[in-house]
Design brief:
With about 250 residues, the protein is an all-alpha fold. The protein has one domain. It has helices spanning about 5-15, 25-35, 40-60, 60-65, 70-85, 85-100, 105-125, 135-145, 155-165, 170-200, 210-235, 240-254. Helix 5 packs across helix 10 (about 170-200), helix 7 (about 105-125) runs parallel beside helix 9 and helix 7 runs antiparallel to helix 12.
Length: about 250
């Protein structure tokens, strides 16, 4: 794998993992639409590990707080546990079906457009008046159930969590915060699952490009998180919605 390929894939992962535009679909599309070969599961794991480290570093104070079991920390742990329960259950039930039947350009295009429109409706209809500190267990579980839709390529895990939170009238910044915090167990579980699959097939080979990809993904992810949070109230979700609709349309046409 040449250095340009590593940089492109790391940049795509770093930008798309936390923006509501679906990282998995972009990583699937790169080898489909270019001359680059499929980067392989190990490289995907390295990229996602970089993103995981970025969000942990960005929210390090809140995570340290949670580990110290302050009231806010206990609430954060509750959010992460309850909100993350549905994803592994749904994953075990449908991951094989998704892998063999839904990793296509047509599915990615349709999901990209459909969930862009849903995000548009959620952003327009949301009252944006609820705070994450007062979130109920039912609300967290509901958001976690929505998150399972991200198993389908093109949906976007961060996008569907943000959409669900907006539909429940949480503030934009808090909706994004939920998406980022729930990404910690989600990315971790996905990486562990992929490592387990590779271990069972005796197919784990780590190259230096995996480490390079991880570091670059960490850097790009951290920058993306910071810029997304600091600009969202100024520009709303409109640019991401427009991008998704354009991307989905182009994929359907071509």
């Amino acid at each position: 794998m040449d250095i340009l390929n590593i940089i492109i894939l790391s940049l795509i992962q770093g930008i798309t993992e936390f923006l509501p535009i679906s990282s998995s679909s972009h990583l699937i599309l790169i080898p489909m639409l270019t001359e680059y070969p499929d980067q392989g599961v190990m490289f995907d794991i390295a990229l996602h590990t970089g993103s995981l480290l970025a969000v942990i570093i960005y929210y390090r104070r809140e995570i340290i707080n949670a580990l110290q079991l302050s009231d806010h920390g206990k609430n954060l742990i509750r959010l992460l546990i309850i909100g993350s329960i549905p994803l592994p259950i749904a994953g075990l039930l449908i991951i094989d079906f998704v892998s063999y039947n839904l990793r296509t350009v047509e599915v990615i295009a349709l999901m990209t457009i459909s969930f862009a429109l849903l995000l548009l409706i959620a952003d327009r209809k949301s009252k944006n008046n609820k705070d994450i500190t007062a979130i109920s267990s039912i609300a967290i579980l509901t958001i976690g159930l929505f998150q399972t839709l991200a198993l389908v390529p093109g949906v976007s895990r961060s996008g569907i969590v943000i959409t669900a939170a907006l539909l429940l009238n949480y503030k934009r910044v808090d909706a994004i915060k939920m998406a980022f915090l729930l990404s910690i167990p989600a990315i971790f579980m996905a990486s562990v699952y992929n490592v387990f699959e590779l271990t069972s097939s005796h197919n784990i080979i780590i190259y230096k490009e995996h480490f390079i990809g991880m570091i670059l993904s960490l850097l790009f992810s951290y920058i993306t998180i910071h810029l997304f949070i600091t600009t969202i109230n100024k520009i709303s979700f409109s640019p991401y919605i427009i991008y998704r609709i354009l991307l989905g349309t182009i994929l359907l046409v071509f």
